Amino acid sequence: MGILHIISKSPFSHNALRSCIAICANKDSLLLIEDGVFGALQSAPDAKALQSLIERNIAVYALSADVNARALAKKIEPQIQLITYEEFVQLTINHNCTQSWY
To answer: pLDDT 10s per residue in the chain (102 long)?
Structure first.
């Protein structure tokens, strides 16, 4: 597979998610962790751009522990897949490389 892009900053205070979305390629995946899970909100600044990735069959994930810690489970886009830490590790194994966005 391509690159696993990892976003850890909130789109409400950083532009990491927007920059990442601009360069995501077809075999890439995107994972939202820590405050990056705010990007999964239906009201997030980049929600439409993130939806366009999903429509291009680019997998978008959010770490469930971080989503739950911020009480966001009922507010995120339904097409974003919630994953565990174990699945996070598996994603890193399945991709050619990882890119963390700060």
So the answer is: 899 999 999 999 999 999 999 999 999 999 999 999 999 999 999 999 999 999 999 999 999 999 999 999 999 999 999 999 999 999 999 999 999 998
Quick one: tokens of 21?
A: 């979305």
CA-nearest of 82, 12, 9 to 46 is 12
CA-CA distance, 53 to 26, in Å (whole number)?
9
The verdict on pTM exceeding 0.90 is yes
CA distance 83 to 96: 19
